[in-house]
Amino acid sequence: MDPLDLLDPLDASFANLALFGCSCCNRLAESHLRAGDWRVAAHWCALGRQLELDSPDAEWVAVRFKRLFHAAEAMRLAGKSEKKATGKVSRSLLLSSRSCLEACESLWARCPSCSSCPEGIYTCLAEVCWQLKDTVFRFAGDSHGARLEQVVWAGHGGSSIKLSKSVTGSKCGKQQNVGTRLIKG
After folding, report:
1. Full 3-state SS string of 39-99
2. Average pLDDT, the chain
3. I need a labelling partner for 155 at 20 to 30 A (CA). Which of 32, 52, 81, 116 fits?
4. With b meaning 16 or more CB within 10 Å and e meaning fewer, what string describes 52-75?
5. Domain boundaries of the chain, sorted by first residue
C-alpha cells in the first residue's frame, strides 16, 4: 500500500503540505524564469497545478495567482525563444500567456490581497496583446476599479504602446493613475 493513499485531502495537514508544495514550485519556477529557463519553469508550474486544491482561501488564491503569472511568463519566454529560432512568435503561446494573465486578473478582482503589485498583470497583458496585434480588449477587473482607459499606438507598425489605467486601491481608498510605457523596437 502506498503511504500517500492514507492521506485525506480534506485533512488540514494534507492541505498545508499541498500549499507548501505549491509555494515551493512557485519559487522554483520564479528562479528558473530569472535564469531564462522557461522549460524548467513551465515544468514547476505544471507540478504546482497538480498539487493545488480548489479552495477559495486567500492563501490558495495567492499561490494560484503566482503560478498563473509564472506560467504566463514561461509562455512569453517560449515565444521569444521560438522567434529567435524561426523568426516568428507562436500565436498559440501568446494566447496561452494571455489566458494565464486574464486568469490572474480574475483572481485579483476577487481577492486583491493575492498580489501586492497588480500593475504587473496589466503591463504584461498589454505587451502580449501588443504582440498579438490586438488593440481591442477588456479587463475583468472593471468591477473592482481597474480598467484600461487608453491604448495609444505610436509610429508606424506599433513601435510603442502606452497603457494608462485607474486603480482604486483597497488600502488607501483613493484613485490613482498609473502609466506604463513599453518601448518596442
Report:
1. HHHHHHHHHHHHHCCCCCCHHHHHHHHHHHHHHHHHHHHHHHHHHHHHCCCCHHHHHHHHH
2. 74
3. 81
4. beeeeeebbbbbbbbbbbbbbbbb
5. 7-183
